[in-house]
Design brief:
This protein has 371 residues and is an alpha/beta fold. The chain has helices at 15-27, 37-57, 70-85, 99-109, 126-136, 156-166, 225-228, 236-249, 253-275, 301-310, 330-334, 339-342, 356-370, and strands at residues 64-67, 91-93, 113-115, 140-144, 170-173, 191-195, 206-209, 279-281, 291-295, 345-349. Strands 1-7-6-5-4-2-3 form a seven-stranded mixed beta sheet, with helices on both faces. Strand 4, helix 6 and strand 5 form a beta-alpha-beta unit. Helix 5 (126-136) packs parallel to helix 6 (156-166). Bound molecules: 4'-deoxy-4'-aminopyridoxal-5'-phosphate. 4'-deoxy-4'-aminopyridoxal-5'-phosphate binds next to helix 3.
């Protein structure tokens, strides 16, 4: 994975996750609802995986519903809360959210979404949240934990505390946090979204932690799977792969954060040595250890990506999900970037085992591609 710097888009399967996935696919492919011994065994393994994930997240396992990924989890929370609370309900959110949250909010609530203000560095303002909670008494507050584009960490722990004090349900989209930073505090949130392929697990599998285990949310309707909460045959092999991936990474997170933060800071220095005084989006705020988003001094970001790809490096122009045809990004607009700047934005996102040579190699390639 030497030249791969697009981990926020997706990650390669960790070897342990691949092994767990293959083993589960070979030995435990039966339907977990089967009334024979083999079905019962899958059911037990599934329950065990739920318990292990609960331990990792600090949440009661019975609160966890396995889903098809973070998009499904985000859609289910928004749809359910909006429909349950009727036409006068308001939801507080931020302009930095992922499209899988923004789009259901727009469809279900339209003008009843109240956005929080953000600092220029790309962080939601907790003071503003406090004021808006008092003014609107929202049916839900939803904030992401870490931004997928510029990597800024959001004040979700403070928001969760504020909401708890006021008795307001709080949802955190932790798709870019889980597996990169310690999970402490996630179990205290009412709803938590996560996605396996963002941390070395398989694609198409994720989870939502619910406020209460028996809470009815609008996932998929049909059979009684997931204790009657989400219909559809459980994807036990993918669940096993996802949970194994998180178990593999969890003990390493502090070490990875301290090592990679040094390499990231060095890279920003090398980037400026190679390209001149580039603007780094989110500079001055706490950021994910793996993400650097910057505005290239000239040229079109798609051309930069293509030339870097020829040189063996995979980077992106921002989020795969919010890359709009004209190159604009709602998130970057919220951070005060002009359309012209957005067309020069490049996102680098490293992995747990990205080495100093890999980071240096990328800085060197950026310098070469410029000429
Ligand atoms: N939320 C965030 C913050 C994300 O970064 C992503 C993936 N880019 C999603 C949600 C959607 O995740 P999935 O691919 O699992 O549907």
């Amino acid at each position: 994975m030497k030249g791969y710097f697009d981990y926020n888009a997706t990650t390669p399967l960790l070897p342990a996750a691949r092994e767990a996935w293959l083993k589960a696919s070979d030995a435990f492919w039966y339907n977990a609802s089967g009334l024979y011994r083999e079905g019962g065994a899958v059911h037990r393994h599934l329950d065990h995986a739920r318990e292990r994930l609960g331990d990792l997240l600090g949440a009661d396992p019975e609160r966890i519903v396995f889903t098809g990924g973070a998009t499904e989890s985000n859609n289910a929370v928004v749809r359910s809360i909006a429909r349950r609370n009727g036409a006068s309900s308001v939801v507080l959110s931020s302009p930095l959210e992922h499209p899988s949250l923004r789009e259901p909010l727009r469809r279900e609530l339209g003008a009843r979404v109240v956005e929080l203000t953000t600092t220029e560095a790309g962080v939601c303002d907790v003071g503003d949240l406090e004021k808006k909670i008092a003014a609107h008494h929202p049916a839900l507050v939803t904030l992401m934990a870490a931004n997928n584009e510029c990597g800024t960490l959001q004040p979700w722990k403070e928001a969760a505390r504020l909401c708890k004090d006021q008795g307001i349900p709080f949802h955190v989209d932790a798709a870019q946090w889980v597996g990169k930073l310690p999970s402490e505090g996630l179990g205290e949130c009412d709803y938590v979204t996560g996605s396996g392929h963002k941390f070395g697990g398989p694609k198409g599998i994720g989870f939502l932690v619910l406020r209460e285990e028996s809470e009815p949310l609008d996932f998929l309707f049909g059979g009684p799977q997931e204790n009657g909460r989400r219909a559809g045959t459980e994807n036990y092999p993918a669940i096993e792969g996802m949970v194994t991936a998180l178990e593999t990474l969890a003990p390493r997170l502090e070490e990875v954060r301290s090592r990679q933060s040094v390499l990231r800071a060095k890279f920003i220095g090398q980037l400026r040595a190679a390209l001149g005084s580039v603007r780094v989006i989110g500079e001055g705020a706490d950021c994910l250890w793996n993400t650097v988003m910057f505005v290239a001094p000239q040229g079109d970001n798609r051309k930069w990506c293509a030339r870097l790809s020829q040189a063996g490096f995979q980077v992106s122009t921002g989020s795969a999900c919010s890359a709009i045809k004209d190159g604009s990004s709602v998130v970057l607009a919220a951070l005060g970037a002009s359309l012209e700047e957005m067309r020069r934005v490049i996102r680098i996102s490293a992995g747990w085992d990205t080495t100093e040579e890999d980071w240096e190699g990328l800085a060197g390639a950026l310098g070469n591609v410029k000429n």
